[in-house]
## 1
Amino acid sequence: MAKAKGSPKTGGRTKGTLNKLTELIEAVTETFPNGEQGFWARAAEMAKNGESAAITIIASRLIPTLRPISQITNIKLGSNNLFQDAQREKGNGLKLE
């Protein structure tokens, strides 16, 4: 039998270790009587009492945060050389990526 080259795989999770999401679900299930429904009921109750963190959690769940959209930038092209025009505009404060 030929000897395997290289070292054995030693990285990664230990066998039987739970995924972080699984750990979170188990913690919610153990903490709240009705699991996820109990969590949301408690968050709603806290939001009604004015807890700003609970209000933020519920709001972000109902209306996800929108990513900003950059404004349209007009670049005046004065020559036939796009590179020179872009360099000129960059000197005027335009951020080119």
## 2
Amino acid sequence: MFKMKDYQPLVHLSLIIMTPPFFDYNDYVYWKYMIIIYLQSIDYDLWLSIENRPHKPTKIKNDITVPKPKSKYSDGDRKLLSMDAKAMNTLYCAFSRSESNRVISCRNARDI
């Protein structure tokens, strides 16, 4: 029978597997493929938030589409905005500090 101490190496391994692939400048094509798979494995909607551009909550006012004020965001709006924030966080975690400084001004994950 296994005891908790027997699972420690497995817990350590899972922590390593759950980190995003690190971007090291050498093989962008490989990293891009790996980060796409990584994001999709966390939550496919996370990948879609990058692929389809970030969500911008809007409403129709006088037959014109206008941005919603934050106080009027629906739960669905918040969920979609949260997806882009999670995608940005994941990408930042894959970068070194110097690489993060290059993309810090990006407003959404797709621009990164």
## 3
Amino acid sequence: MSHLLCKGHESMNAKLGSLISEFQKFLKTDEGEKWKREIIDRKKLYQKILNITHIDNLTTEEFSQIIKSLWASNIWTNKDWLVQKILEENGGLINIRNALREFLDLKRRLLGDER
């Protein structure tokens, strides 16, 4: 942890150290364990659905599931409206599939994964 600390900023360093300690304690609680499981489940969902071999078969329901699972979408109370708005503003699911395919193909090429 010392590599994260800055000389001359002892109060900031103390606060950061305290926050890290509190976060480590939180991770050991039932709520922390639940939070970690949610992250793992979300990652599995994204890996399954946002896979270049699956994009052509991406359904509206799967797209909706992804959008609704994003932390950024928590500010909307009506997540169905949000999903519809994203679909409408991007020309529908076909355009979203195409954009995702292009993104995933670029990622694959940049990372040198020729699968």
